[in-house]
Amino acid sequence: MSRAFVKEMDGDGGEDIPELAISPHRNLVTPAGLAQIEETLRRLDGELATARAAEDRGTVARVERDLRYWSSRRSTAEVIDPVARPETVRFGCTVELQTGAGERIRFKIVGEDESNPAQGRISYVSPLAAAMIGAAVGDEVAFRAGMATIASIE
């Protein structure tokens, strides 16, 4: 039978490894985000060499899939340099919100692959970032179950 009619299996257990979904949004990144993508590509290149040397087909398939994703993200990355003194919230800004209870919370608005809400980095396509973009100090935005005021923009 011709190889053209045989379905290749990528995983160790014979399962297909699905491709990682590429976001339909613009791939905006901060300079740090671009560095993160490039470091991921270097790391994956090393993992691929190791997996090939070990003849680990499952790992080779997974790493090749990840390399396709990150290579695509690198090729579509639009680096947005930070603004020194922004007057309104925009991509790359760090925003401090103050809740009605007096709690102050800081978020940096970053690209989708850079986001990590637990570390205060939120994607520019998240509802909170979308609500803040274009707002100025003193403006209110929906936050959690209430409202918060933009206390500062860096």
Q: Concise description?
A:
The chain has 2 domains: 19-79; 94-153, Chitinase A, domain 3 (Roll), CATH 3.10.50. The protein is built from 3 helices and 7 strands. The chain has helices at 31-53, 57-76, 127-132, and strands spanning 28-29, 78-79, 94-99, 104-110, 121-123, 140-143, 146-153.
Please, could you describe this protein's structure?
- This protein is of the alpha/beta class and 154 residues long.
- The chain has two domains: 19-79; 94-153, Roll (Chitinase A, domain 3).
- Helices cover 32% and strands 21% of the residues.
- It has three helices and seven strands.
- The chain has helices spanning 31-53, 57-76, 127-132, and strands at residues 28-29, 78-79, 94-99, 104-110, 121-123, 140-143, 146-153.
- The strands form two sheets. It has a five-stranded mixed beta sheet with strand order 5-4-3-7-6.
- Helix 1 (31-53) packs antiparallel against helix 2.
- The longest helix is centred in the N-terminal third of the chain and has 23 residues, at 31-53.
- The protein is elongated and about 60 Å long.
- The protein starts with 27 loop residues before the first strand and ends with a strand.
